Amino acid sequence: MNPRLMLLAAAGAALVAVLGFGVGRLTTEQPKAAAPAQQSARRILYWYDPMIPVEHHTGPGKSSMNMTLIPKYADESPGAAGVQIDPARAQNLGVRLATVERGALPSDVSATGVIGFNERDVAVVQAKAAGFVQRVYARAPGDTVAAGAPLADLLVPEWAGAQGEFLAVQRTGNAALIQATRERLKLLGMAPALIEAVEKTGHVRNVVTVSTPTGGVIKTLSVRNGMTVTAGQTLAEVNGLSRVWLNASIPEVMAGQVRLGEGVTATLAAYPGETFNGRVSAILPQTDVASHTLTARIDLPNPGGRLRPGMFASAQFGGMSQPALLVPSEAVIRTGARSLVMIAQPGGRYAPAQVRIGREADGKTEILAGLSEGEKVVASGQFLIDSEANLSGVQARPIAPPAPGAPTPAPAPKPNPSPAKAPALYESVGRVEQISPASVTLSHQPVPAIGWPAMTMTFKLADPALAQGVKVGDRVAFAFDQLSAGPTVRRMSKATAP
């Protein structure tokens, strides 16, 4: 081949190679130049450390924890959109949703109390005429007796003369006089059965057996062999046991949830596994100042006398259902300062919302503000989503203000500036064991306000004059405070014996 032709062919091949390299370089470098252009189109709000989302920086660099900062773009800003979680990841987290709905929330009040006597079922046994006790039947207070149980035999001298007169009139056959004499015997206190027995037998019966009109327990017994009794004198008191009272202590904050006539279920440690049903018969008007509780009186049937006064019991109040906006209790995140729920939004997004909660019962919590009926909330896995929202800087949706014209709760009154309060005084009653101008040793009763049991201890005297006129063995009422120097008596005076 001609050398000149070979040289031209080599030059052409070199030119083709150079052109191919240039075209290839242009095609490969074009996307690299487009990426920064596309990325620069997204507006950066600030730079932050994912571990410290509240710490914002104006540019790239290192955070206070020496972590590389990442940009927060405008199209990723937190707001109503919340955080987005892939459906597969949400399924792995065990996310479960629940609907905010209206329903009836029953009152769920529980309390403890003590079984007591039914004070409405008390029978008083009195002497109907003056006489002498000839015999007693070995009864004592606390004994359980049946109706008609004998207590004592009384000799009534006055009845002997009246019955003799009645028998004499009966022999005359005058019906009007007989009826008048019979009425006189009734006025003297004789029972119709006794008058009928005298009339049939023709013998005077001036010894009468006093018996109980009803069954129950003898609370008081004031009759003894050989004593003299007067007409109307109380001989005994019998308290029935067919029904008893459970006096339950209701916390003051739950007082509005207890209603007269509502059903109550009581359980006792003495009978495990058994329940006793009753109803609220009264709510006593006075509140215990020390424990801030009021007493609900529950009427319980007592077949067989198994419920004994003094037994400890727990009461569960059935309550009356009230309409409310409800969510599952497990959906509420309680932080101490506020309560939150995670709202499920379209597109797999979740956002926190602040709520105000009310009562809770049967696994449901009442929502007073912050949610609307029909919204979806996360009932399971909400803590993990809340952590993700905190890392992303998502702000919780605040509670919406009330609509115009709607009643708003009155703001809490601001405390007026005042001087430092004086130390609280606690009152009790005790017996003086030792006393001096500077201190006093007292065997005092319990002090419920500060949880003190009955005990013997030494108090300082705020004023030596408090010791004047008080000696060892005196019963005193006193008031004391608790300072850093120790309990100090501020008031003390003699108290009457209980």
Give a short overview:
This protein is an alpha+beta fold and 498 residues long.
Largest sheet: 7 strands, antiparallel
Helix content: 10-25%
Measure the end-to-end span: 144 Å
What percentage of the residues does DSSP assign to strands (E)? 35-45%
The CATH homologous superfamily of the domain at 122-239 is named: RNA polymerase II/Efflux pump adaptor protein, barrel-sandwich hybrid domain
**CATH level-two architecture of the domain at 122-239:** Beta Barrel
Q: Give the class-level CATH name of the domain at 122-239.
A: Mainly Beta
> How does the overall form come out from the CA principal axes?
elongated
Secondary structural class: alpha+beta
Mean pLDDT equals 78
Q: Count every beta strand, where a strand is a DSSP E run of 2 or more residues.
A: 31
CATH topology of the domain at 122-239: OB fold (Dihydrolipoamide Acetyltransferase, E2P)
**Residue ranges: pLDDT <50 for 5 or more in a row?**
15-39, 410-415
Radius of gyration: 45 Å
Determine the number of helices (DSSP H or I, runs of at least 4 residues): 6
